[in-house]
Fold this protein.
Amino acid sequence: MDNNTIKGVTKSGFEYELSKDRLNNFELIEIFAEVDNNPLLLPKALTLLLGAEQKQRLYDHLRTSDDIVPADLVGQEIAEIFNSNQVKN
């Protein structure tokens, strides 16, 4: 792993890899600042954070047998990623 990449695994088993450049994206910060007032921005924030392919893997990881991606679980996964020691530092 290079110094520009953060890898981790959430409690549910989702494996993610983030570049520090994605975390340093002001557009991402701006959108997350607005998510509380406009939750419809969360999918765009996820794309900026994870990239389209990794976002889809997260959705597939959380998808239920009824083919639903529970919004609360997506929120939990993102909170866990942001609260990981590697992302905080």
Observations:
- The chain is about 55% helix and 10% strand.
